[in-house]
Amino acid sequence: MMFHPAGHPRQKSLPFSVRARDEPRLIGLLPLVPLGLSQCIFTAELMRFDATLPATAHAALSVVSSSFAVRQFLQNGLDPNLYNEDGLTALHQCCIDDYKEIVLLLLEAGADINACDSELWTPLHAAATCGHLRLVQLLIERGANLLAVNSDGNMPYDLCEDDATLDYIETAMADQGITQETIEDARSSVERTMVDDIHRLVKEGVDLNTPLEHRATLLHIAAANGYLEAAELLLEHKANMSAKDDDGWQPLHAAACWGHVQVVELLVAHGADLNGKSVLDETPLDVCADEEVRSKIQELKQKHDAIKKLHDKHKSMLQRRTSSAGSRGSRVKPPSSRYPPCSRERATLQDKPSQQQLLTSRAVGACKNTEAQNNLIGSSRETNRSWDGERGWD
């Protein structure tokens, strides 16, 4: 992937200011340049200067280093800050290989003592990691940044395992008045700057999904560097988690690759695709080398798959119920469209006598029946009285 964690993509071609055709004698100095250094600042670029240069010349570069040869290249215009595709400068390489004399030459020629490679390692990181005490002393004396933070959040003293070298670095930090608070501030300074920039972009109405170099977005950068606060802020403002860079990497790929488990969890919680594929058909799990992060991704994937399976099951059951209810309903005679339901109900109620009307009607009927019965009884009594009268009235 061409995009690196710090968000500063490195160019692959190495600019070279020396005109070797005009200075053919420089070609003869190649075998005297240290192998690692030559790979860092020359490589195929020198081969282009003279087609007659034998391919076996690079095999000869393992000859003992010659500060004279390097001095000649520098005096003839070689840029001391050239870097390869990994961002390594000549100064980085010499600090790895413990070439103090060449380090001095490079610094005198203007080499950047705090140059960062693609993972934000400075020459002091390299020298401290390798335990090269004399180079650590030289770099610190020349002003190397003791608080430089690489892409993993480590300073030079974090990476030093050699006791004597570590003791020197810590003493130098104390002499410069560096405290634990200073260290923590330095670790978070880059992310704070990014957070401030995001707030400014939001205020200015800038699209946070605008592709940068290699089509990486701000969310790619935050994810690659493990900037949790910046990632949260971007997601709050609808940053696109599905955006892909030139290699087809989504932000989740970047977080997984550089082992930032908290950012991985954050992105997945917001719906990032655990099965997203890159141009090379790689998922976030495929590009992750950190065992802890791999375990977390697998755990999240299992939970995601279980939830999806349960969701699909409920969805299927709901569809069957809906289909069944629809088929039963089709056999029921549809209601009349003459009235709306409430109107039909009112109309039906109006056609029926109320309970009170029924009671009144029954009461009237009962009264009439009583009157008729009384008339009949009265008539019978009159008849009886007449009949009795013939016998003599009682």
Automatic annotation (TrEMBL):
The residues bearing each ANK repeat, given as ranges, are 86-118, 119-151, 214-246, 247-279
Q: Does the keyword Membrane apply?
A: no
**Ranges of compositional bias, category Basic and acidic residues:** 382-394
Protein name in UniProt: Uncharacterized protein
A Pfam family reported for this protein in Swiss-Prot or TrEMBL: Ank_2
Q: Per the record, GO CC terms?
A: cytoplasm
The region called Disordered is annotated at 307-394
Q: Which InterPro entries match?
A: Ankyrin_rpt (IPR002110), Ankyrin_rpt-contain_sf (IPR036770), PP1_Regulatory_Subunit (IPR051226)
Q: Which GO terms describe its molecular function?
A: enzyme inhibitor activity; myosin phosphatase regulator activity
Leader sequence residues: none
Return the Low complexity bias intervals. Answer: 320-329
Residue ranges under compositional bias (Polar residues)? 351-360, 370-381
Keywords in alphabetical order, please: ANK repeat, Repeat
- To which species is this protein native? Anolis carolinensis
